[in-house]
Specification:
About 40% of the residues lie in helices and about 15% in strands. The chain has helices spanning about 10, 15-30, 50-60, 75-90, 105-115, 130-140, 165-170, 185-200, 230, 240, 255-270, 275-285, 290-315, 335-350, 375-385, and strands spanning about 35, 100, 120-125, 140-145, 170-175, 205, 235-240, 250-255, 325-330, 350, 355, 365-370. The protein has a seven-stranded mixed sheet with strand order 2-8-7-6-5-3-4, sandwiched between helices. Helix 4 (about 75-90) packs parallel to helix 12 and helix 5 (about 105-115) packs across helix 11. The N and C termini lie far apart (about 55 Å).
Amino acid sequence: MKQFPTSQVLNNLPKQFFASLVKKVGEYIEAGYDVINLGQGNPDQATPQHIVKKMQEAAADPVNHKYSPFQGHRYLKQAAADFYQREYGVSINPDNEVAVLFGGKAGLVEIPQCLLNPGDTMLVPDPGYPDYLSGVALAKAEMVTMTLSETNHFLPNYSELPSEAIEKAKLMFLNYPNNPTGATATKEFFEETVRIANQHDICVVHDFAYGAIGFDGEKPLSFLQIDGAKEVGIEIYTLSKTYNMAGWRVGFAVGNSSVISAIELIQDHLYCSIFGGIQEAAREALTGPQDCVADLNNLYEKRRNVLIDGLRSMGWDVTAPKGSFFAWLKVPAGLTSTEFADILLEQAHIAVAPGIAFGEQGEGYVRVGLLTSEERLGEAVRRISELEIFKK
């Protein structure tokens, strides 16, 4: 069969690390091994029943069998605005400060294409969510990484960035609670971010995917809670983590109206909106009973404690995450993150993500998901404790 060459744009896209991880784990499972998969970020709990019921009802309504409005139903935008007012005390105009998204990832990949020209500079955290790089490549933009180090609580230190990079930057991505480190942001850090963004005309995009998941009684901050934040940026919220709706592919962006308008414009050309039944279910999630969110947060905190307490009890010096459903663990001395991940898979049949998959600054760590039962996490600790590298 004739092979047609792909475009330069496609050739420049970063490799999808998690596709290779899924393949490697699958090979072990097919070989009959009992693999504890802690390597991905796919929620393991079911979508709450009241949301599913609303979807079932909406799917039977013929009005949802037609095209939805290109930019989403206004009722969903109103629900997003009501959600932000209730949860964060932030006032959002549903008519020009909300864009409905096909999941948070879609918005993150679209935004560089909305705001940047080829050669423009954007600031990206390292380590960070790998799909940020997809947006950079599609926009043909230049990327400057912001180091997230443990010594600075995995927050960027703006004073360490080259002055030329800050002067040229037009866009900045942040993400707290953070994937992969599990760190959370402080009010002071966000205030500094607003100041820097104002001073240098940088649009800030805060990826708030794990906004509902905070531990030790601390609710994660929304970037938009900071005075002036809406003037310099937007926040992207997904229902994937808060309501276990990862497969539903629905989220929204809120904030600066000019950025929202740009997102809606590009989506007018890419999509014909989300199925109305999903939009009705999303409204139910945002405005309906929220006990399920608190219960889910408590579940992740219990799992975190089982994992972290267990690893500490065997002598591994690990740091407990403050948010998200990931733990970011230092690898034993003398090993790379990939070598340690391979040892865990080959000898203990535990899958984790090597830190190098999230950027150069991720080397020396592995990311461990809290997306299995306390019993399985306890079993993972037991298997790890039996490895020779922890008996030396």
